[in-house]
UniProtKB/TrEMBL annotation:
This is Methionyl/Leucyl tRNA synthetase domain-containing protein. InterPro entries: aa-tRNA-synth_I_CS, Met-tRNA_ligase_1, Methionyl/Leucyl_tRNA_Synth, MetRS_Zn, Rossmann-like_a/b/a_fold. One of its GO terms (molecular function) is ATP binding. It comes from Serratia oryzae. Belongs to the class-I aminoacyl-tRNA synthetase family. It catalyses: tRNA(Met) + L-methionine + ATP = L-methionyl-tRNA(Met) + AMP + diphosphate.
């Protein structure tokens, strides 16, 4: 056993289906991570949920004339189907609307903050559209971010990932009517991040994360943390008590959603192992996969929620991603500039989509998905090279004996090291793993074209591709000899494959 992990994916807003930009972000990375750690013998649970209290859901409902609850249910079902079609296997998906586990988890974190003076009531100025008679906390307002100047809602900026201060934003307008907003004094609850800033910084210094996030985090602390509004009276959110001041907004509730999913999973599972109990185990890592634009809530607010709570023992790991462009332009469903996951998987195949997306995933910086490049790549790899590989191993080689120890070239050994580095739980890279697989294919192609039998590389590709392309990997493994698979699995430190598999 190499460890135990709770893996989370930032909850999608159920105002539509998933496009390739979504999959290239947290979704596929979390699935590949989970499969990789399990292949190495770790205990993992992958959870997420439907963000049913998002104000963007409310806006979509108003624009479409569909009831919010109905819209959330329909799109949650679409999202889950798209995930299944992409072989992204989530252990438990929670629908948060009127879910008792979700409400209990939110209330637990909220009341702990109140009891420890980490949450307090303050009066603040909130944007309001007098024409539409709607509050502009998030989905219903847009203007210039006071931190970076780019267009943002008043919640979390997509460009700099900071939390804008709405009265300091420029040209803030209603997204429904485009009129300027006024400001009204409202009593709201605030999370006192400055109170725990030093302890939070010390805690986060130990948490594995990518360079981009580490740089952002250091900058955030240098700027100085400020109190973060966590309730939105009169808007979307979960109303905990009768007073509107306690209507908790969705970004405060993300961690509660993960906790609730684990609790619901534990109650529904026939296994004696309790997934929820892992939160109280110091050997557990909670691994959050998120877009860089969600950093303020996930990396600052969520650890702060439990920092003073001695019950929770888990360690944090954060894997952020930048945005993926489509043919050089930002994905935009409103402009119909998007490729829906279900359409691409149906037209191509799930393994080719997973592999190509893994190669272009924007782990550290923005990347591009080229439709033309994808189909050309797929034609060569899946239409030409892989059939050659299948043909090369379909005829049994009765004379082949496995050497003891296995004889690998220096290059093959180096590729194994690269794969193992990318597969580390604290330095994970789906992109690096995919790069190793491509290098193996390039070696195989050269050797096949030269009339050679690249058996070692084919076996390595079959085994190491399992987290990225589970169906192809299993098909290739079935054509390999049992002794061969067993020997290489032992070499790689992966789980043993039984004769019945």
């Amino acid at each position: 056993m190499s460890g135990q992990f709770i893996v989370t994916i930032t909850p999608p807003t159920p105002n539509g289906d998933l496009h390739i930009g979504h999959i290239a972000g947290p979704f596929l990375s979390a699935d590949v991570f989970t499969r990789t750690q399990r292949l190495k013998g770790a205990r993992c649970y992958l959870v997420s949920y439907s963000d049913d209290y998002q104000s963007y859901l409310k806006r979509k409902a108003l624009e479409s004339g569909i009831n919010e609850v109905t819209l959330a249910k329909v799109n949650s079902a679409k999202i889950q189907e798209s995930l299944r079609m992409t072989d992204i296997h989530i252990d438990h998906w929670l629908e948060s609307y009127e879910n008792r586990h979700f409400e209990d988890a939110v209330q637990m974190l909220y009341e702990f903050g109140l009891e420890h003076n980490l949450i307090e009531l303050k009066t603040s100025l909130v944007p309001y559209c007098e024409h539409c008679q709607i509050w502009g906390y998030e989905a219903f307002a847009r203007g210039g971010c006071n931190h970076c100047g780019n267009s943002s809602d008043p919640s979390q900026c997509e460009f700099c990932a900071m939390a804008p201060d709405s009265p300091e934003m420029t040209d803030l307008r209603c997204t429904l009517c485009n009129q300027s907003l006024v400001y009204k004094s409202v009593e709201r609850m605030f999370l006192k991040l400055p109170m725990v800033a030093q302890a939070l910084r010390t805690h986060l210094e130990k948490a594995p994360m990518r360079t981009q996030l580490r740089t952002w985090l250091n900058d955030a602390f240098e700027r100085g943390l400020t109190d973060w509004g966590i309730t939105r009276p009169g808007e979307s959110g979960l109303k905990l008590y009768k007073n509107e001041a306690h209507r908790v907004h969705t970004w405060f509730m993300g961690q509660a959603g993960y906790f609730a999913a684990l609790k619901e999973l534990s109650e529904q599972s026939a296994s004696p192992q309790d997934a929820y109990e892992l939160l109280f185990d110091p050997t557990t890592h909670v691994v959050n996969f998120l877009g860089m634009d969600c950093s303020y809530s996930h990396v600052l607010a969520y650890p702060a929620q439990v920092l003073l709570d001695q019950r929770f023992k888990f360690k944090n790991v954060f894997y952020t991603n930048a945005f993926l462009k489509l043919d050089g332009i930002d994905f935009s469903t409103s402009r119909s500039h998007a490729i829906w996951v279900r359409d691409l998987v149906s037209d191509a195949c799930v393994d080719s989509v997973r592999f190509y997306v893994s190669l272009v995933t924007p782990e550290e910086q923005s990347e591009n998905f080229s439709v033309e490049a994808f189909w050309a790549w797929r034609k060569h790899i899946f239409g030409e090279l892989l059939p050659q590989i299948v043909s090369a191993i379909s005829v049994p080689d009765v004379s082949r004996k496995m050497p003891h120890p296995l004889m690998l070239s220096e290059h093959e050994t180096d590729l194994i090291r690269q794969w193992q580095k990318g597969a580390q739980h604290d330095d994970f890279s789906m992109k690096s793993i995919a790069s190793v697989l491509m290098q193996l294919l390039e070696i195989i192609e050269v050797q096949l074209n030269a009339g050679e039998q690249p058996r070692n590389c084919i076996v390595l590709f079959a085994l190491l591709s399992e987290p990225t392309m589970p169906r192809l990997s299993q098909a290739l493994q079935q054509q390999l000899g049992f002794d061969e698979r067993t020997a290489f699995n032992a070499l790689l430190g992966l789980r043993q494959v039984s004769k019945d598999e």
